[in-house]
Amino acid sequence: MLGSLLLAGSRSPLARRAVSGLPLTRKVVDRFVAGESTADVVAATRRLTGSGLSVTIDHLGEEVRDPGTAVAAAKAYVSLLEELRPLGLGARAEVSVKLSAVGQALDPGMALENARQICAAARESGSTVTLDMEDHTTVDATLGVLRALREDFPETGVAIQAYLFRSEADCRDLAGSRVRLVKGAYAEPASVAWQNKAEVDRAYVRCLRALMNGTGYPMVATHDDRLIAIAESLAVSAGRGPDDYEFQMLYGIRADRQAALAAAGSRVRVYVPYGDDWYGYFMRRLAERPANVAFFLRALRGK
Ligand SMILES: Cc1cc2nc3c(=O)[nH]c(=O)nc-3n(C[C@H](O)[C@H](O)[C@H](O)COP(=O)(O)OP(=O)(O)OC[C@H]3O[C@@H](n4cnc5c(N)ncnc54)[C@H](O)[C@@H]3O)c2cc1C
């Protein structure tokens, strides 16, 4: 119930103004966001890769409604990739792109062109791009852009949301590609998505099985210990070694678990968001876990 309210709030301009104006919000947001500037995220990248993790960096922003902002977002990614190049991290520092941040709602052709520029800049560094998945109304368009990008950049990955009924079939179609499997973070109707945790978890395992049995590179994005253990066992059954798939978790969430998995020999990539347009991302993180709301309220009370 609280989660649904927070997800509704994540798309409300009124709630955005109210939350963004609260004192101390920035301090709370910093738990989930690596900072506002390119220098901040480059510093976070150095720290995380120095401790044996990989990163996928998200320049925060979504549902962009004007072409200037969409082009600026693409430029921000290109200059970030240029800043990262001298570090020589290659694919250990990739980027995650929301197509709605680069113009999907305005003109799908513009989003494709902007995404293409980001892919070209990533390739210059031996790096890759993964397309985030947004709400269910955008899935077909996102997969269309993915197909077009993959003609020139077959290394481009995409996130697939296990909670959507369609995703098991999408995973079978994409089982030769880089696919990040997530549970799904948006408020979706019962006509298109599983609604309770047990059903979503079962769907996640079915999708995971399709990806592990395919020829692509599964990216297992979850903080859920049960699903992590299942992924490890499905990988063994499919004859995959520790370099044939990876785990992914979000910046600021279960950092101890990220370190432990990496120390045990798994590949682990951290999704690192940065920038000042943190509102939608932050609200989805609060919606995932009521304890995060308590943390937010405690900080507001100055405790
Ligand atoms: C790398 C990465 C990329 C993602 N990309 C997308 C995307 O493109 N599109 C999309 O819709 N969703 C995306 N997500 C979000 C995803 O859909 C889930 O909403 C989110 O990962 C929570 O699900 P879970 O699998 O961790 O399981 P859950 O069942 O939600 O959580 C399992 C356990 O993890 C811990 N945990 C989970 N969330 C939090 C939190 N916010 N704060 C503190 N602890 C927490 C708790 O201990 C919890 O018990 C991404 C997630 C990751 C990790």
From TrEMBL:
It holds the Pfam family Pro_dh. Its cofactor is FAD. It catalyses: L-proline + a quinone = (S)-1-pyrroline-5-carboxylate + a quinol + H(+). Keywords: FAD, Flavoprotein, Nucleotide-binding, Oxidoreductase, Proline metabolism. InterPro entries: FAD-linked_oxidoreductase-like, PRODH_bac_arc, Proline_DH_dom, Proline_oxidase. It is an enzyme of class 1 (oxidoreductase). Residues 43-295 form the Proline dehydrogenase domain. Its EC number is 1.5.5.2. Pathway: Amino-acid degradation; L-proline degradation into L-glutamate; L-glutamate from L-proline: step 1/2. This is proline dehydrogenase. It comes from Microbispora siamensis.
